[in-house]
Amino acid sequence: MAMVEVRGVRKVYRRDTQEITVLDGIELQVPEGEFVALMGPSGSGKTTLLNLIAGIDRPSSGQVVVAGTDVGALSESALAAWRSHNVGFIFQFYNLIPVLSAVENVELPLLLTSLGKRERRERALTALKVVGLADRAHHYPRQLSGGQEQRVAIARAFVTDPKVLVADEPTGDLDAKSAHEILELMETLNREFKKTIVMVTHDPRAADRAHKQHHLEKGVLVDGAVKTGAY
Amino acid sequence: MKYLPFIFKHLRRNWIRTTSTVVAMGVCIFLFCTLQSVLAAVNTLLEASSANRLVTRHAVSLVFSLPLSYGSRIQSVPGVKRVAITSWFGGSLPAKKEGKGDAAPEATTDWSNFFPNMAVEAEPYLAMYPEYELPPEQYQSFLQDMRGCLIGRKLANKFGWELGDRFFLESFIPPYRKPDGPFEFVVRGIFDTDPAKYPGTDTGIMYFHHKYLYEATGRNVGAGTYAIEIDDPDRAGEVSKAIDALFENSDAQTRTETEKAFAAGFISMAGNLALLLNGIGLAVTFTILFVTANTMSMAVRERRTEIAVLKTLGFSSGRVMGLVVAEALLLGVLGGALGIGGSQGIMWLLTSTPGIRDVLAGIGLTELHLQPVVAALGFAVALFLGFVAGFLPALGAYRARITDMLRTV
Question: B359 in contact with A at a CB cutoff of 8 Å?
Fold first, then answer.
């Protein structure tokens, strides 16, 4: 069963009177438990496709069905609620809230649940333990290295136990060692926690960690799924 | 409530900006509360005025007195029922003589216990002031004693004075001072009032015989003002004109007005406080509105990425908007609390600092305090300012698209 289904998706942006087609007739299926990499040059539409899968943008036409839900058919507030339960987003620049400690950042998505304060905190600490940062729980983002920040961001992404993790260049701002650790962690989440992962990357070494690679060029998927060595 | 720590943390992010905004809003609410309290006190004072009483004073200024001969001529004006001389004595207790008739005459003035005191023509004056309730035997006792005085219940309680007690007052007005030292008074009556029937009537005042003042100063003083009772309140304007017309061609022209207008004018001698504070208050309120709005706009602008992250995590646009508005409201709460606290503090300071308190008492403002309704209104204004200031930036956060905000990182 496909966790993510992209059916004939087109995305057009308007700039003044000009229409710019960013994605054109995308067909994509990501089975449950798959780790997929989206690759392609800048401006090829990778991030736009990722945003559509994550439900933070809507297609101009076509359908994006994630975990059985037609994302484009949901209202704004329903879509927000859907995101909080189904998608964990990992950003290139981590995007932690600087005034919150690591554990508070991880706890943030749990504020949208009905969990009590203590349970929220326990879950956030558990998530930090999974990413190996239990001892940095009360550190603020400015007190963490880039790799550690990204690990906190990953903990924040999976703390609500979403079905899909989407990552936009998760290693793009990291040195090789930190990037390696982050990719290890993502593999662990995929393998042990059965998370479906869709990752945008420019880095071939990062893409090699995925089960499949899809290449985009000028808004079009140029090939079928390419199996990687990890698959 | 679970978002409160989150909101507080954001306010602490730029604590200098937050503090200055809170202080600015506090100043605004402080001004609002203080102004409204002063106005409330003035209104209470004015409410004690009667519609059928007029006051005639020197046309130029209250500083100048009127000839004593004016009394009988005013009495002859049709519509006038009673006329009584009233002179604001401006006496204060010599510190070494309070309640001690045998104290040394070279006593020093004690301004810390200043209270309003008036020299009046007792019989007509008390007849036109039914507000004061006085036992008949005390009234008779007062009339028979040249040095006798009447004090209100509040004064009696304040100083612990009882019937027969003596005390000394010395005026700061040169013509009302006598060479042999302060005036001696004997408490001959203590009057009360019915607050339900006569709200705003002050019993923190003292009356004594104008004749005593006249004789003791070598028959050299006039009448500060004339209190006039008229038959028909509807004819107040007509009677006032008739009285002033009587003295139109004399050296001391008069100005006659209703007691309420007179009281309002008397208070405004301290400066047009209401107009001044209203003007400042309004200007400050608008300024603070813009300052707070600017603060919130800056706060939202510099947090565009965070707002995008919150929305990505599943916070709905409405919830994000609520967080921004709540942050602005919290600024209002803090500013309001600061302003109300400051206003309460200044009221306490004004009514307990010797000198200032006496000046206020001299114009009848003995009851100056922050009323709960004014404090509540001040708090509401603070919340309103916070809400209005936060609404537009919050609306911007509401409308902003996640992808647009992430793209501007």
Answer: no
